[in-house]
Design a protein that fits this description.
Helix content: 25-40%
CATH class of the largest domain: Alpha Beta
Largest sheet: 5 strands, mixed
Strand content: 25-35%
Number of helices: 11
CATH architecture of the largest domain: 3-Layer(aba) Sandwich
Number of strands: 13
Order of helices and strands: EEHHEHEHEHEHEEEHEHEHHHEE
Shape: globular
Bound molecules: oxa(dethia)-CoA
Radius of gyration: 19 Å
Length: 332
């Protein structure tokens, strides 16, 4: 019997309508378009303006986009994973609500949080369920309403993040397409440099903390940047080496969209030309768990069956890694 691998067989996405441009940010904090563009590559990001709608709203829309494109019966979905750092609430999971709302009534579901690496780690988890032979398909959604934890008076964070969601369907494959190899790592000593602290079980959200804006995300950008450049590039290089891939045999790099300079550094490390580097940071900024599926959704029409795609991410925790995946279909 041939080995079962886990292949991506469909993609969907959703971004909210409201566009927060660099020009608008110039009126909110002490910053300017030139600084943001040259330091990050970001021109605009999407924001879900409605306070009554959370990450599940984005996740449901992305999943419905996939379901419609694929013509999938949601009752056939066996597992729904929502990768997110901004769940609707601390309990119950965003995934359970999302699964019910999309009609995946025969599935079980759970959330996964590894900050900006949530989707990358989610790919590993989704693939593991399928490779075990116990499940035929898994719907993996990366969704974040980052605007819910961003202080729009803090120029160090508000220029970077945006809201969005993307979804992929993993299915069992017997042609050896799909996930081939992974290199994933965590280092908890990095957590002090990037976190949304208060409201967690160790850090009570008091009235005083709220007054100081302690409910928002904080990052020491320069330290995160240095670690991101080193580790994301290193993980990508390791995955190439381990699989005897050369720069010519890699067709695409899908790297977490946190900063164009970090993506460029990763591409340079594996000597990949610009035309093979997926990039949409200019449109969406850093959507945390949604960057990777938003990338493959944007590039879906250019991806060909058998293409070698390298996924890479780095984020809070610290968590990082790279995944080598063989693309499984030509889009219609
Ligand atoms: O996705 C999860 C992982 N997150 C990341 O990967 C983010 C990693 N970090 C970064 O992308 C970058 O560190 C930032 C984009 C956040 C910042 O860029 P940087 O080149 O590291 O800038 P910096 O923090 O070293 O600040 C340089 C200068 C400072 O001024 P002085 O001290 O040199 O006078 C900052 O105060 O730029 C100033 N600055 C700004 N100026 C205009 C910081 N933020 C801004 C701003 N507009 N928004």
């Amino acid at each position: 019997m041939s080995k079962i691998s886990a292949a991506i067989t469909a993609v969907g996405a959703y971004v909210p309508e409201y566009v927060l441009t660099n020009q608008i940010l110039e009126t909110m904090v002490d910053t300017n378009d030139e600084w943001i563009t040259s330091r990050t590559g970001i021109k605009e990001r999407r924001i879900l303006k409605d306070d009554g709608k959370g990450t599940s709203y984005l996740a449901i829309k992305a999943a419905q986009d996939l379901i419609n494109k694929k013509g999938l019966d949601p009752k056939e979905i066996e597992l729904v994973i929502v990768a997110t750092a901004t769940p609707d609430m601390k309990a119950a999971s965003t995934a359970s609500y999302t699964a019910s709302e999309i009609g995946a009534t025969n599935a079980f579901s759970f959330d996964m949080d590894a900050a900006c690496s949530s989707f990358l780690f989610g790919m590993s988890v989704a693939a593991g369920y399928i490779e075990s032979g116990r499940y035929k398909n898994v719907l993996l959604i990366g969704a974040d309403k980052m605007s819910s934890i961003i202080n729009y008076k803090d120029r160090a964070t508000c220029i970077i993040f945006g809201d969005g969601a993307g979804a992929v369907l993993f299915e069992a494959n017997t042609e050896n397409l799909g996930l081939q190899d992974e290199y994933l790592r965590s280092d908890g000593t990095g957590r002090e440099f990037l976190q949304a602290t208060y409201g967690g079980s160790s850090f009570k959200l008091t009235a005083e903390i709220l007054e100081q804006g302690g409910q928002y995300a904080f990052q020491e950008g320069r330290t995160v940047f240095k670690n991101a450049v080193f580790n994301m590039a290193d993980a990508a290089a390791k995955i190439l080496e381990r699989n005897n891939l050369t720069k010519d045999s890699v067709d695409w790099l899908a790297a977490h969209q946190a900063n164009k300079r970090i993506i460029d550094a990763t591409a340079q490390r594996i000597e990949l030309e610009d035309s093979k580097v997926m990039m949409n940071i200019q449109k969406y900024g850093n959507t945390t768990s949604a960057t990777l599926p938003l990338l493959i959704n944007d590039y879906e029409s250019q991806l060909k069956k058998g293409d070698n795609v390298i996924f890479a991410a780095f984020g809070g925790g610290f968590n990082w890694g790279a995944i080598y995946l063989k693309w499984a279909y030509n889009s219609k």
